[in-house]
Structures are given as C-alpha cells and as structure tokens.
Design a protein that fits this description.
Shape: globular
Number of helices: 17
Strand order of the largest sheet: 7-6-5-8-9-11-10
Helix content: 40-55%
Radius of gyration: 23 Å
Number of strands: 11
Distance between the termini: 70 Å
Strand content: 15-25%
Structural class: alpha/beta
CATH superfamily of the largest domain: Vaccinia Virus protein VP39
Length: about 425
C-alpha cells in the first residue's frame, strides 16, 4: 500500500482523490481542494498493472471492471489526472508523475518508428473504429452524423446548429463557385460532401475506406437525388484527376507521420492550378508527442496527432502555400462533452447492441479526449492551402460574406421544404 500511495501522491498533487485498495484500505492524495473523487481497485494485480503503465492500464482495467469510480464521474477522475499532468513541473518529477513523464518521453522518441500506414493498413485501421454497428453513432452524433469537431459560434448553441456552422465555415473558406469540382478525402457519413453539393452547387466526390460509412453515404445520396455528392471506396492515393477544391476533415490524424510529405504532395497533384484545399485536423499545440497508448490500441489504431512543426515541413516540400490558418481551441472539448452526454443518456441502448465492456470503453474514449482538449493542449487546425498566392482574396472578409450567403440559402431551402 505504501508504494501505491507514493505513486498516486506523485500523480495527483492538486484536487482530492481517495484511493481504495483491493484489500479494503484507503488513502487520500492531492491538496484537498475541489470535489472529492474516489476510485477503487477490485484486485491486487490491478494495482501493480496500473503502476507499470498508468496511461495504458487505467483504461484496460476500467474496461474490465477491475477499477471502478466510486465518487464523482469517470470524466471527473480523468480530468483531474489530465490537469495534474499538464500542471506538473518540467522534468521527470517524483512518484507516478515522474514515471508517466518517462514513459511519455520514451514513446515520443519512438513515435516515427513502426509500420508505415500504407493503403492496406489504412483500410484495416479504419475498419476497426468505423465499421462497427452504425446504431452506436446514431446514439450520440447530431442528425447529420457529423463525426468531427463542431464550430460553436455562440454560447448555448446546440450540437446540430454547431455542426451546421462547421460545414458552413469550411464551405466559406473553400470559396467554391457553382459548377466547380470538389474532392472530399475522408468523407465520413457524407454530410459535408452533400452540403457542398447542395448549397454551393459543386460537383463533389467523397472518398472513404469505411464500408459502413460508404453504404450510409450512398443511401443518403440516393435520397437527395441530383443535388447529392458521389461517393467512392477509394484511398486518397488511388484517386485520379484534378479538382478545383480539395477538403479533408478529421482524416489527417490517420495518415501516419511517415506519410506527411506524400500526403501533401498528393493534394498538390490533385489540385487544379488555381485550386484551394482545406485540411481540418486535430493537432498538438505544445509540440510533438506520442498518441495515448490506450487510445491507439483500442480506439484509433494507426492514429497520430500532429504538431504544426511536423506538418509545416511537409507542406513546404509539396510546393503548396499556406494561405490561412485557424486554430479552434475548445470547440472540440464542447463537441465531446455533448457527445458524452448524449451517449450516457442512451447507454442502455449501447449496452444492448454490444455489452458493458464496450460502454465503459466508449465512455472513457469520450471522457479522455474531452479532458485532453481542455487541459493537455489538443486543438483543431484548419489549414487552407493553395498552389498559387493569388488563388484567394487578399483579406478574410470573403469568409464572412460567404457564410452569410450560405445561411440565406439554408433558410430558403428549409422554407421550400416546409412548403412542400
């Protein structure tokens, strides 16, 4: 127990956490501030496994019911750990904090080593996360099944409006003229591609490697008729042709560090001479680091979150110009909070589809990611790219004007549909 207490005392220095051991003994760590939280180990082996690798083992032990949260919520506990790790002084520190830092630095040093995310690996990795029962996504996503960061324009905005605002914001940045061709790399459930076709008058091709998302996208497109996008099961390395616009939302995280230069060179090849691209990706504001090992093993195999310092050299080598860069800071934290609340409200339905272990895994995924965006420096980068310096207006005023025009088209379409 003394070793476990010392370990936790190094991990949690602010806040209040009570730890109950498998033997039934308890101790408290932290400075006593804030809400009292508590966890319980349900077997002695779980205590040892946790100390070996907290970032990996906590998730595994929680999924298997070998650790329980007995006071506060799972999110509260994960957020407390995130805050303490983020606030820890530079260096290795002491106890659990020092050991976690050492593991993080080791993983960061090895982050570029491993199998390249080739087309075969990419398909397998995508299937692991996205080709699950689609009813799971319908439990917690918005009505358009947007599975990426929403854009909250005002306080109190609901998830559906924020996801619509995200699509509108991206469309405005792309500065699409009617009739232009658009390639959507990683088109998900098809919502953005269909929005660009419907409200911008573009000819849109969406690419996905997920069979489930492809089937749903094709079905939704058939319901929309001639205004819909065209969807294909293709890797971005396999598509041929030139496009006026290229957009990629929530896909770059799956490209793999070794493929950054090839990815941006491919975008340059796919763009017309006067073309514009927009890459929307989760990134690391503090700089390069390894992806959380539990998240990599159980949620997003092959995933890696880039720092700007890792993306910039690859963009420069591609010959593309960065024409705009926006950093969405807490938008994804709000998105994840909404997803988590919606998932928990329908948790019993998810349990009926899969089981208790899946529900624990999914809740931890949503809670852990939200905490990372709030306390560990994760953000979303929206990087606008062009092959020519003069491909876009000189000031950003055109974005607001385009958003206003798109709002009018949305309203007009809604009124038209209501009239029908």
């Amino acid at each position: 127990m003394d070793l476990l207490r010392t370990f936790f005392a190094g991990l949690i220095q602010t806040g209040s956490l009570e730890v109950r051991t498998a033997a039934g003994r308890s101790f408290c760590v932290g400075d006593g501030s804030g809400e009292r939280l508590a966890i319980q180990f349900n077997d002695r082996r779980a205590e040892s496994l946790f100390m070996i690798d907290p970032e990996l083992r906590f998730g595994e032990l929680y999924m298997d019911g070998r650790i329980d949260v007995t006071a506060g919520s799972l999110y509260d506990v994960v957020a407390l750990a995130s805050q303490n790790l983020a606030d820890a002084s530079p260096g290795l520190g002491s106890g659990g904090s020092g050991w976690v830092r050492l593991l993080q630095e080791g993983r960061a040093a090895l982050r570029g080593i491993g199998r390249a995310n080739d087309a075969l690996s990419a398909r397998r990795n995508v299937a692991h996360h996205y080709d699950i029962d689609p009813r799971i996504y319908q439990l917690f996503l918005d009505s358009d099944l947007q599975y990426s960061c929403a854009y909250f324009e005002r306080e109190g905005e609901d998830l559906d409006d924020a996801q619509l605002a995200k699509k509108r914001h991206i469309a405005a940045k792309l500065a699409i003229s009617p009739g232009q061709s658009v390639l959507d790399i990683g088109s998900g459930f098809g919502g953005l591609a269909n929005y660009l076709a419907r409200y911008c008058g573009a000819s849109v091709t969406g690419l996905t490697l997920s069979q489930m998302q492809f089937d749903i996208s094709r079905r939704r497109a058939a319901e929309l008729g001639p205004l819909a996008a065209d969807f294909r099961m293709l890797d971005y390395r396999e598509i041929e042709g030139r496009f006026d616009r290229v957009v990629s939302v929530g896909m770059f995280e799956h490209v793999g560090l070794a493929n950054y230069e090839a990815y941006f060179r491919r975008i340059a090849q796919l763009l017309d001479e006067h073309g514009v691209a927009l890459v929307h990706t989760i990134g690391r504001a503090p700089g390069p680091a390894a992806t959380n090992p539990w998240l990599t093993r159980y949620i997003f195999p092959g995933g890696y979150l880039p720092a700007l310092s890792e993306m910039a050299p690859a963009i420069e080598q591609s010959g593309l110009f960065v024409t705009d860069l926006e950093v969405l800071r807490l938008h994804y934290a709000r998105t994840l909070k909404a997803w988590r609340a919606r998932f928990l409200a329908r948790r019993e339905e998810a349990k009926a589809i899969y089981d208790e272990r899946f529900c624990r895994m999914w809740e931890l995924y949503l809670a852990g990611c939200e905490a990372s965006f709030r306390y560990e420096g994760l953000v979303v980068f929206q990087i606008q790219l062009a092959r020519r310096q003069d491909a876009l207006p000189l000031t950003r005023d055109y974005i607001a004007r385009a958003e206003a025009a798109l709002r009018r088209r949305e309203a007009s379409s809604t009124l038209s549909e209501a009239g029908e």
